UniProtKB/TrEMBL annotation:
Pfam families: SpoVS. One of its GO terms (molecular function) is nucleic acid binding. It comes from Calidithermus roseus. InterPro entries: Alba-like_dom_sf, SpoVS. This is Stage V sporulation protein S. It comes from the Bacteria.
Length: 90
């Protein structure tokens, strides 16, 4: 599964496009964000991506979870959003 890392400076529309493309091609994607600004951008991107995949008759299911990451010999807590596509309910 592909992992996208989102920062507080990430552009939500760009991240949403990447999420939508991966959902169409692989059916699932993981988004990781550390810090409140990054989480904000990630959530906005997920909402935008939902609109991007709707014309393909797809919806998404999001499972958020906390995860510990070792970055630069330091343990950080991140939010991980596991996103899967599913057929749109009519």
């Amino acid at each position: 599964m592909e992992t996208l890392r989102v920062s507080g400076k990430s552009r939500p529309n760009s991240v949403a496009g990447a999420i939508a493309a991966l959902l169409r091609s692989q059916g699932e994607v993981e988004v990781q964000a550390i810090g409140p600004a990054a989480v904000n951008q990630a959530v906005k991107a997920i909402a935008i991506a939902r609109g991007y995949i709707a014309p393909d008759n797809l919806d998404l299911l999001v499972k958020p979870a906390f995860v510990k990451l070792d970055l630069e010999s330091e343990e950080r807590t991140a939010l991980r959003f596991t996103i899967k596509s599913q057929p749109l309910d009519s």
